[in-house]
Design a protein that fits this description.
binds flavin mononucleotide; globular; three-stranded antiparallel sheet
Length: 369
């Protein structure tokens, strides 16, 4: 399936505007997953034949591979993600206020390197509209966990960021299983400053407080809250974030968002401003995962994202400490068959290794001495 996608779709994609191509693919997925027959066909084509179960934050995942934030900013294709076999989906980034995002064009592809550069700037319908869309999804029996990526509205000053994040969390609370506080997108001015010190602590505290209030109101358990970090942090900056995450009892770290680094300054795509993702990010993201696992002695669950284009990349992230995985660019360049390739590939890697379960393999190449 992957080979067919590469043969037919790649040349087609190459001549289309990246954002338009993305919009069309989402629409097709949404249409195909709205009908039981086409849903069955999607499942037959793309769903991995075997599960690779893992439990994190008290949630059972059929396998560890999900869709990364940014792919479904409006929560439009929830049924689509489960039909093509993902283990979970992350919608958003959602901001408290509706916003247009940056001027178009704002998404660029480099097919040769399998890289993307984007400066979307959190274009999304805002937390009220996304909450309504999620509410509608109660009509069908959701098969996989839905995560929400929380961003900050551009208009909100950094000093009021905590209220922006916490308001979105409150509005989406009932219909979301896991929240990700995104303080690492490079396309909202000042956002990455929120990764540090008092800003980060106040955002976490406000979100935890809203989480507990909502849990109390609905008589339910509180939901896991994770933090998503940038790959451009130094190790000492990263450690400061981890100290806060551990002391404030954050449930996990998503590593990483897109990078400001470029493989070169010659290719046209790389001269565009914004965050770069895909194959050029693979190694840096894995390095950070390794460091997080080592520093926290494996105590903090890590969601590995950044340049997962194959099952080899996925396995590297697992043995360096990730327990769940996500991709964006991989789907753009490898197509919807990527999930099957990765889950089947991970099962094979596991069978050929000394480890019995995925759990045993996680962080196995990190020395905790
Ligand atoms: C077009 C685009 C939009 C994105 N939007 C978001 C977003 O809203 N929130 C977020 O946390 N990450 C966002 N990301 C980052 C991805 O979730 C992911 O962390 C990053 O692309 C690295 O993964 P990849 O190499 O598999 O693409 C976006 C990425 C792309 C390419």
């Amino acid at each position: 399936m992957g080979r067919i996608f590469r043969l037919i779709s790649r040349p087609l994609l190459a001549v289309q505007d990246s954002e338009k191509a993305h919009g069309r693919s989402l629409l097709i997925l949404k249409i195909l997953s709205s009908n039981p027959l086409t849903r069955f066909i999607l499942r037959t084509l793309y769903k991995p034949n075997h599960n690779l179960p893992i439990t994190r934050f008290g949630i059972n995942f059929q396998h560890p591979f999900g869709i990364a934030a940014g792919m479904d900013k409006r929560a439009e294709a929830l049924r689509g993600w489960e039909s093509i076999g993902l283990g979970f989906s992350e919608i958003g980034g959602v901001t408290m206020l509706e916003q247009e995002g940056n001027q178009k064009p704002r998404m660029f592809r480099n097919g040769k390197d399998r890289a993307l550069v984007n400066r979307m700037g959190f274009n999304n319908p805002g937390s009220e509209k996304v909450a309504l869309r999620l509410k509608k999804s109660r009509k069908f029996n959701r098969q996989i966990p839905v995560w929400a990526n929380l961003g900050k509205s551009k208009l909100t000053p950094l000093s009021e960021a905590k209220d922006d994040y916490a308001t979105t969390l409150r509005r989406l609370w009932r219909d979301v299983d896991v929240f990700v506080i995104n303080v690492s997108s490079p396309n909202t001015p000042g956002l990455r400053e929120l990764q540090h010190g008092d800003y980060l602590t106040s955002i976490i505290n406000e979100c935890i407080s809203e989480n507990l209030k909502s849990a109390d109101m609905y008589g339910a358990e509180s939901k896991p809250i994770l933090i998503k970090i940038a790959p451009d942090l130094s190790f000492s900056e990263l450690e400061q974030i981890l100290d806060i995450a551990l002391s404030e009892q954050i449930d996990g770290i998503v590593a990483t968002n897109t990078t400001l680094e470029r493989p070169n300054d010659v290719d046209k795509t790389y001269r565009e401003s914004g965050g770069c993702s895909g194959a050029p990010l693979t190694t840096r993201s894995t390095e950070l995962i390794h460091h997080i696992f080592k520093y926290t002695k494996g105590e903090l669950p890590i969601v590995g994202v950044g340049g997962i284009m194959s099952s080899e990349d996925a396995w590297e992230k697992i043995i360096n400490g990730a327990s769940l995985l996500q991709a964006y660019a991989g789907f753009v360049f490898e197509g919807p068959g990527l999930t099957k390739e990765i889950v089947n590939g991970l099962r094979k890697k596991l069978q050929n290794s000394e480890y019995k379960t995925l759990e045993d393999a996680i962080g196995s190449s990190v020395s905790l001495e």
